[in-house]
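DM from R.C. (forwarded with permission)

"hey, sorry to bug you on a friday — could you get me a structure for this? deadline for the figure draft is monday and I only need the backbone to look sensible"
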Amino acid sequence: MIVDRSGGKPLVADTFPETSGVAAGMTLEEALSRHPETTVLEADEPAYRRVFRQALTALQGVSDRVEGAEPGTAYVGLDGLEALHGGEAALVRALREAIPRDLAPRIGVAEAKFPAFVAARTGRGPEAVTVPPDAAAFLAPRSIDLLPLPDDVREGLIRFGLHTMGAVAAMRMELLIDQFGNEGRRAWELSQGIDDRFLAPLEAEEAAVERIPLPFASTSLDLALAGIDTLLKRAFARPPARGRYASRMDLACLLHGAPPWEKSFHFRHGVGRWEAASRAVRRQLEDDHPEAPVEELVLELSDLGEGAGEQMGLFPNVREGRERRLAEVERQLQARLEGGPALYRMAPIAPWHPAPEMRVLQVPLDPSGRDAMRPLALPTPVAVEEGPDGLPVAVRLERGWQRVSRIEDRWSFDLWWLPAPMTRAYYRVSREDGRQVTLFRDQREERWYQQAC
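My reply, with the result:
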């Protein structure tokens, strides 16, 4: 079963057919009392909304009249577009191709919204279902569960023995109005195929969306801020946001072992530079940030305008001038190196961490590059000969095996609570040639590594 915790109390959002007796909207406690061995999956509502927005944007590439209803359902105006696409069949094919295949889109075509909705919901396979001119005959055998009615009205219809739309359409409308009021009228009209609701097209919204996976899941706020700065640079460098002012930023943090965390930031005067947005975001995140380890960041800049935005300062910003000079050096170096990032920024994220590779990240200076942030001082596997007591007595390095003449220092740590637990025993040893090297034994993998400085 899939569980949604966004409303506070965990509720079942959807289930596989095997969980009989469990329905959407049921509390998790009640559902598990009926099926205690069921696998529970967390609903990723931010991801669902993001994918749906992407689908609506793709449909707007086919028609300028796209309405987003509840997530997963969209209405598209097709009339007048047949000639542009070479016929209705080609137009429907363009709609299907606009949606990712793994979403298995189903399409219904009708003269009104409700018959088209029913055709799509009851269709099977990739072929579109076209409602014939007699929409009432098409709807007659369909269940009243498809009617957009309150639960008490639907239960009342069932008590009267009205299980199909054909049975509802056969009733006198006045009787349904007497019993159920305006909802009775609505049920009768929809069952007849009468739906005079207009299409409410979405406005084409420009936004800059960027995402980045973090090199490791962590609760470090500095790590999250380093990722946000990288995404802000990329977003402001994209064509929709370049030279414009953003009034809103939405941030989604995909967490390890917890539901996604979301926050919206509103900029009163609009911001046209990533530095200004970063300062505003940092102030708010210091008081309100995710508590669980963050695995991935998704950032969206929207409400893009041409207004005056943030007032320019009276004195030049030394840091921004330095950033511009570094960007120019980066472009020159890339030209000589035939592409690829040339300059990186070192971002301290957890200087106190016992594992050196978790302390500093290497972040590309070029915002248009797609290189991910990378940790420094990564350990490398190494062959070590152990003595009877498990201590290192020889290590194979670039020049072959070297005897360990002395163990200069040793320490260990066990970070069992991390998303990727670490249990290490470190040894700083002197080799025969007098040079020192730092080794550690991963107690979980039972392997030796050389730790870079």
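R.C.: lifesaver. The two ends are 47 Å apart (CA to CA).
me: no worries. The first helix runs from residue 28 to 34.
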